[in-house]
Specification:
The structure holds two protein chains of two kinds. Chain A is of the alpha+beta class. Chain A is flat, with a radius of gyration of 33 Å. Chain A starts with 6 loop residues before the first helix and ends with a helix. Residues 128-160, 273-318 and 525-535 of chain A have low confidence and may be disordered. In chain B, the strands form two sheets. A seven-stranded mixed β-sheet of chain B has the order 1-9-2-3-12-11-10. In chain B, strand 5 and strand 6 form a beta hairpin. Chain B is globular, with a radius of gyration of 15 Å. The chains are: A alpha+beta, B mainly beta. At the A-B interface, strand 21 and strand 22 of A face strand 5 and strand 6 of B.
């Protein structure tokens, strides 16, 4: 079977399950008795097993299977998770991650069987198995039968139904037994209907109709009337008396559209009891059926790829059911481009209406309406592209846990604002820089336990990550209560590395020294450790953040800790900008980077080290004449007051001298084509209402 | 524009737009042409190579415009009413505009009537390196522009003719 078309779905879901496993195992470490967690882990492992089996990745299937076994024992209360077991489980996750990575790269899971992990998993189970249990093989057989049983119980417990839980009236029971005696086959069927299905009753009816053609429906749960009245969740069960094979029955059920899947197994009327605990139902069966019956019923790993994918999505007690659609990011890009075009068209319309002198109040009203619609549309599309930053942050607790062990330090990570949303493209890119900063805090920031004790700090080092939205940007702060940055050490290191000359260094402020950390090829780690200092320094963090039109700054206090602050724009495509005229040309300056606009008289100009500066409310700012930077002639009389845009880059300010202000406008950023993108001062271009092009100034590179 | 057709031999027919730069006629294979637009305001981009005149707006897309004259080492463009910007589509799918003095005609040439320039011939004068071949037609000769060489970012790039 060609499964390649399902590969991306498989990978997506495998990653989700891995993440959920990771999270839950971490919770389990703190709270080994947490039942929700154990159930969640079991379900994830189970789904992954099914998915891997469907896709033909047998090694991955084996490993997840063993993991599932462990948790089925845990669920059954046979064993308890010890803290040592957590390590094995995390190793197991790493191994699965390895498989997934291999598959991502070359669609092959690789050849590593991870026998040692499988062995360790078996050890966990044996260790917990009580005296009554025999040696490994026997122990293996029993939980296997148990696992499906436990799994089968779950849907029933969640308000959905299961054919094994159908309660039989004595009359029905006798009918069934009679039919069985006649040599007819009895099948229990549980049908799952897609949650998106609108006409559940109709689908149910079609299933009934289809099945009645080949046999007789003895009983259903809920009853026929309730199904017709849609008085059921997304699944229902029934018992069918027929001569046909099980495959035929399954085929009929699945041929009805919007049926997500069905569980079908032989039904033993004597096994089903009206009031007994559901868990006992399969166990009550004779050993032979117990091995057979639940196997197909337990889940549906093999039959079809689509089903394999869906298996994980069964409404098995998922706490919140998200009504979501997976959309290719490319399609969203197209949509965003169209919105951009619309905004340009709107701008054109406004400028056309102004120039042609159509100042009818009705026209203005309609234009204003159009403007509000396009702005809302832009915001909605932007929101669709936004995902919570959570997906990136999820892996950090695990990382800190591992770092605790490798570094021998005690650290704790607190995160807030995981639900802060950002553009998908930004979220995808920001993971590595954040990881680097956290590792940096763990490695260089937090002191050893002894030193912390000396300094009177709590034994456990705190690393924090706060994400929040601030106006049109998102701020992520990563910090620690560790050592802080020693500006002198940085300075000496910089001199040693030849980043600055000793003379230059002498002039640097403490702040500027710290900024040296962002210089390429700078690493203050005294020795190269596994955690950081692999040649990927803070300069990479900086360049990555800047490539996303963001900025990174650092606040530090020696002995008390440091905080790295990353500020990123909410969206990359459409921004608010201040339109200015320099010489004869129009330029746009992103509003985010503007602090204020001032009128400065030429007499207020001062010179420091031969450079023009102004004194603005007590702080001295360098003055940059944009016409000189951009090689154009200023049209203003040098004796007139200058219009100065105070731009901000991190904590630094500078005054940009322009000729004239045009006003604020919503602009669509267009890339400058090849050839012209070499100019660092220009980050892009935009098309104005009249079709003219204005270049967008990148204030960060002007400083 | 009148269309001339050489029908003496049968071969693959290729259409060329014949343009004038300085005093010479050049042919551009029509399949590389996206559009021909009148001269319009070009937005200057600071700090780029001097032959890049700036960017223009073509149907909402920002397209760089370069001066072939300056690349060829000729005098600065003199913009007249006949000046046009020819929007070319490069092999990577990017659009790039070139300024030409005049667009003359559409010419259909038989492949057999195009002489490839040999490598040695390309060494000559400055603008010879932009010529990929010479086409014969009833009205005379036309140099076929090697567009890869014209739009390349390097000042000189010797590449097999792309225009024929």
């Amino acid at each position: 079977m060609d499964v390649s078309q399902y590969l991306s779905v498989f990978l997506d879901e495998a990653k989700e399950h891995l993440q959920s496993l990771n999270d839950n195992i971490m919770v389990l470490e703190q709270d080994p008795e947490n039942e929700d967690c154990i159930n969640e882990i079991f379900r994830s492992a189970h789904s992954m097993k099914g998915m891997a089996g469907t896709m033909g990745y047998t090694r991955m299937q084996n490993l997840t299977h063993d993991m599932e076994d462990v948790f089925s024992d845990v669920r059954a209360g046979k064993i308890k998770i010890q803290s040592a077991d957590i390590d094995v489980l995390l190793q197991c996750l790493d191994a699965i991650q390895e498989y997934v990575d291999n598959i991502t790269e070359n669609q092959d899971e690789g050849t590593d069987e991870h026998q040692n992990i499988i062995k360790s998993l078996a050890d966990i189970r044996n260790g917990g198995a009580n005296g009554g249990e025999a040696a490994a093989p026997a122990a293996d057989a029993k939980p296997k039968a148990d696992a499906p049983a436990a799994d089968a119980a779950a849907p029933g417990a969640d308000g959905t139904t299961d054919y094994r839980a159908i309660k039989l009236d004595p009359s029905v029971k006798s009918t069934l037994e009679e039919a069985k005696a006649q040599g007819k086959k009895l099948y229990g069927i549980t049908v799952h209907i897609q949650e998106s299905c609108i006409l559940k009753a109709a689908r149910g009816f079609l299933v009934f109709k289809g099945l009645e053609e080949i046999g007789e429906i003895a009983v259903s749960d809920p009853n026929t009337q309730d199904i017709e009245d849609e008085k059921f969740e997304y699944s229902f069960s029934l018992v069918l008396i027929t001569d046909e094979s099980k495959e035929k029955v399954e085929e009929i059920v699945k041929s009805v559209s919007e049926v997500e899947g069905c569980e079908c197994g032989e039904f033993d009327p004597s096994g089903a009891k009206s009031s007994e605990e559901k868990e006992e139902a399969p166990a009550a069966n004779t050993p032979a059926p117990a091995a057979n019956t639940p196997a197909p019923a337990a889940n549906t790993p093999a039959p079809a790829a689509a089903k394999g994918g869906n298996a994980g999505k069964k409404p098995v007690g998922k706490p919140v059911v998200n009504r979501t659609v997976r959309v290719d990011i490319d399609k969203l890009d197209v949509l965003m481009n169209l919105v951009s075009e619309l905004i340009i068209a709107k701008n054109s319309l406004i400028s056309a209406a102004n120039t042609s002198g159509v100042s009818n109040s009705n026209v203005n009203e309609q234009i204003e309406y159009l403007e509000s619609v396009t702005t809302n549309l832009h915001e909605s599309v932007m929101k669709v592209r936004m995902v919570p930053i959570e997906s990136v942050l999820q892996k950090f607790p695990r990382m800190i846990r591992d770092l605790n062990k490798t570094l021998g330090k005690k650290m704790e990570l607190t995160m807030t604002g995981e639900d802060t949303e950002m553009d998908r493209t930004v979220v995808d890119e920001i993971g590595d820089p954040l990881m680097h900063l956290i590792r940096n805090s763990a490695d260089h920031g937090i002191e050893s336990a002894e030193l912390r004790a000396q300094r009177g700090k709590p034994e456990v080092g705190q690393i924090f990550l706060h994400a929040f939205q601030d106006g049109n940007s998102v701020v992520i702060e990563v910090g620690d209560d560790g050592n802080g940055i020693d500006a002198e050490a940085v300075k000496n290191k910089a001199i040693e590395k030849g980043v600055v000359s000793p003379e230059q260094a002498a002039l640097l402020t403490e702040k500027q020294c710290v900024e040296l950390l962002f210089h390429p090829g700078f690493s203050t780690a005294k020795q190269v450790s596994e955690i950081s200092g692999r040649g990927v320094g803070l300069d990479v963090v900086k360049s990555k953040v800047e490539s996303l039109s963001g900025e990174v700054t650092v606040k530090t206090k020696l002995g008390e800790g440091s905080t790295w602050i990353i500020r990123l724009p909410l969206t990359l495509a459409i921004i608010q900008a201040l339109m200015v005229i320099i010489g004869e040309e129009k330029y746009a300056i992103p509003l985010d980077s503007i602090q204020s606009i001032e009128d400065v008289s030429p007499s207020d100009l001062k010179f420091v080290e031969n450079k023009e500066v102004i004194n603005l409310r007590g702080s001295v700012l360098p003055l940059i004449r944009l016409n000189q930077v951009l090689d154009t002639e200023s049209t203003k009389d040098p004796n007139e007051d200058m219009v100065v845009v105070i731009a901000r880059k991190g904590d630094q300010l500078a005054g940009l001298v322009i000729d004239e202000l045009m006003g604020q406008q919503e602009i669509v950023i267009k890339p400058l084509g090849k050839y012209t993108n070499k100019c660092k001062l220009i980050s892009g271009a935009t098309i104005l209402g009249d079709g003219e092009i204005a270049l967008i100034l990148d204030t960060n590179s002007i400083f | 524009m009148n269309e001339l057709r050489d029908t003496s031999e049968v071969g693959e027919l290729i259409q060329f737009i014949v343009i004038k730069i300085d005093d010479e006629q050049y042919g551009i294979n029509i399949k590389y042409i996206d559009n021909i637009v009148r001269m319009q305001q070009i937005t200057r981009v600071p700090k780029v190579d001097p032959y890049l005149k700036g960017v223009i707006n073509i149907r909402g897309e920002i397209v760089p415009v370069m001066s072939v004259r300056m690349k060829m080492g000729l005098d600065e463009d003199v913009i007249t009413g006949k000046s046009r910007i020819i929007i070319l589509k490069t092999s990577e799918g990017d659009l790039v505009g070139i300024i030409v003095d005049q667009v003359n005609q559409v010419l259909t040439l038989d492949v057999n009537n195009i002489e490839k320039m040999r490598y040695d011939d390309k060494k000559g004068s400055d603008n010879a390196k932009f010529v990929g071949g010479v086409g014969h037609y009833e009205g005379g000769l036309v140099s076929i522009l090697d567009l890869d060489a014209v739009v390349s970012e390097k000042e000189s790039k010797e590449k097999a003719s792309n225009a024929s």
